[in-house]
Design goal:
Shape of chain B: flat
Helix content of chain A: 25-40%
CATH class of chain A: Alpha Beta
Radius of gyration of chain A: 20 Å
Helix content of chain B: 40-55%
Oligomer: heterodimer
Number of helices of chain B: 2
Radius of gyration of chain B: 19 Å
Largest interface: A-B, 36 and 29 residues
Distance between the termini of chain A: 11 Å
Number of strands of chain B: 0
CATH superfamily of chain A: Amidase signature (AS) domain
Number of domains of chain A: 1
Distance between the termini of chain B: 51 Å
CATH topology of chain A: Amidase signature (AS) enzymes
Strand order of the largest sheet of chain A: 1-3-2-6-8-7-12-13-11-9-10
Shape of chain A: globular
Number of helices of chain A: 14
Structural class of chain B: mainly alpha
Chain lengths: 463, 69
């Protein structure tokens, strides 16, 4: 059965549909992999065996009666442990909450259940989704999460377990969250496909809040196409989350003459392997898209998004800090970093929100003639598990435009694997689109994956 | 921005130390001060872009009515 570990959702769905596999068998298979490999990677917080088995039996009976809820019927998955779910603690990756139980399902969890997906595990994450400004992989009560490609290197974060578990074939897909980089970073370090949807596309009800106007939930999967299937299941208006859009989303690939843009100077400070693989990817992309170079004007993109994040995080965790709970966190810097944010002035926060209005218009205008901005997902491969990121950071100063504009303006982005470094660590590319253009960026990623096989390579130790 | 960086950072740091200082080591206090300094520098960057009176925060308040089923 090991061949199932890295099947796409479509492949698994076909097997479930033709009766060659049952939801009970498939769930049992992935639960065993979670138990066997999860601890090696520090990727799993709680295996939800009872809930998963119960759901699998129910879905098996439905299949026997010819009822298929959706392409996700009978597909197991893992959720980042900031999603409330009945049947397991919801820790937010933080020691003070490791036994805390929330007795309801997040909207994402209930929507996936409605679509027939089976919640099988709560997955590891950086404590409070990085809300205290962590600077090292060891920032979770479950220990530093590892990329399955080399256990001496970090999985990325804050959706650490979501990236690692999908890359190791412990679940067919996982849900992560991103405020600034938390889906794309583990997608990059673990070499899987990861989608950050447009802000407001997916309800955050039942998910930990870090920054109300920046937080997004999205999938990490084996393929770009799988990301579209998951987004269709989890998107849509939710009265419990006032940020959710009433625009309906249906996944479909788009055929058109694509135009993508490179940001001038965006490779400054990139690793040689990232640059080399990006250039190879570019040659492939030029076969199905026109590629131009663009320039983003001078603007304090990072300062705007950082100020919003810091101010909102300070408020979201004010009580946590007041109660002294931050001193129980794992990373030493997370125990005190939160205090400084309590001094963000209201006038600065509001100025950042006002400048955000200018930033979104700059992004819209520059991207107007393009389907996506193409960039490396990260300029660096995964950091060693025992080092602070800043020691591993580029020595040449550079601006994270895709991160600051992408998150500050709430734009969608999809990351897909694009090669490996000499050390065997994945490098990835991202297509960042205009708001609500998920189908376009997914289609670009699908076209790229039709012409490459990086997404079909898997870490040998877990095959 | 009016006021010296050092004085503003010192005052904001003291605000934290007044409330939470007993929980913090000297090293932690120094890290907090550095972090407040970074926030100040971000604030300076934000003030390099001019805004008009009508440039509203890009988040809209919506008066609430419960939806009828």
């Amino acid at each position: 059965m090991s061949f199932l570990a890295f099947n796409s959702i479509k492949e698994l769905s076909d097997k479930l549909g033709d009766g060659s596999l049952s939801p009970v068998e498939l769930t049992g298979f992935f639960l065993e992999r979670l138990k066997l490999h999860g601890p090696k990677l520090n990727a799993v917080v709680t295996i939800m065996e009872n809930r998963a088995h119960k759901q699998a039996f129910k879905l098996k009976k439905e299949l026997e009666k010819g009822k298929i809820r959706s392409p996700l019927h009978g597909i197991p998955y893992g959720g980042k442990d900031l999603l409330a779910a009945i049947g397991a603690p919801t820790s937010w990756g933080a020691a003070p909450y490791k036994d805390r139980v929330l007795k309801y399902d997040a909207t994402v969890v209930s929507r996936l259940e409605r679509a027939g997906a089976i919640l099988s595990a709560k997955l590891a994450m950086i404590e409070l989704a990085g809300g205290m400004g962590y600077r090292q992989p060891n920032a979770s009560f479950t220990g530093p999460c590892k990329t399955p490609w080399n256990l001496n290197y970090w999985s990325g974060g804050s959706s650490s377990g979501s990236g690692s578990a999908v890359a190791a074939g412990l679940v067919p897909f996982a849900i992560g969250s991103e405020t600034w980089g938390s889906i794309l970073s583990p997608a990059n370090n673990c070499g899987v496909s990861g989608l950050r949807p447009t802000y407001g596309r997916v309800s955050r009800y039942g998910a930990m809040a870090l920054s109300w106007t920046l937080d997004k939930l999205g999938p990490l999967c084996q393929t770009a196409e799988d990301c579209g299937l998951i987004l269709e299941a989890i998107s849509g208006f939710d009265p419990h989350d006032p940020s959710t859009t009433r625009r309906k989303y249906k996944f479909e690939t788009v055929q058109k003459d694509f135009r993508v843009a490179l940001i001038k100077g965006n490779m400054i400070g990139a690793d040689d392997s990232v640059t080399k693989n990006f250039e190879k990817s570019l040659k492939i992309i030029e076969k199905f898209a026109i590629v131009d170079e663009i320039t983003f004007p001078e603007f304090p993109y990072e300062a705007v998004t950082r100020m919003i994040l810091n101010a909102e995080a300070a408020s979201a965790f004010e009580d946590f800090i007041d109660e002294g709970l931050s001193h129980q966190l794992t990373a030493s810097e997370d125990r005190y970093n939160g205090y400084s944010r309590l001094t963000v002035l209201a006038k600065d926060y509001l100025r950042a929100l006002r400048l955000r209005g200018k930033m979104v218009k700059i992004a819209e205008e520059i991207m107007q003639s393009y389907d996506a901005v193409l960039a490396p997902t990260s300029k660096r491969t995964a950091a060693p598990i025992n080092q602070e990121f800043r020691r591993n950071a580029p020595t040449t100063p550079s601006i994270d435009i895709t991160g600051s504009v992408g998150n500050g303006a709430g734009l969608p982005s999809i990351s897909v694997p694009a090669g490996f470094s000499e050390e065997g660590l994945p490098t990835c590319i991202q297509f960042m689109g205009k708001a609500y253009d998920e189908n376009i960026i997914i289609s670009l990623a699908v076209e790229y994956q039709k012409r490459t096989d990086w997404h079909k390579k898997h870490p040998k130790e877990f095959e | 921005m009016l006021g010296s960086k050092e004085k503003i950072v010192e005052n904001l740091s003291n605000l934290i130390f007044e409330s939470y200082g007993s929980r913090l080591t000297e090293k932690e206090k120094e890290e907090i001060r550095k972090s407040i300094e970074q926030t100040f520098e971000n604030s300076v960057k934000l003030h390099q872009i001019s805004l008009e009176n009508g440039d509203e925060p890009f988040s809209v308040f919506i008066p609430y009515r419960k939806e009828k089923n």
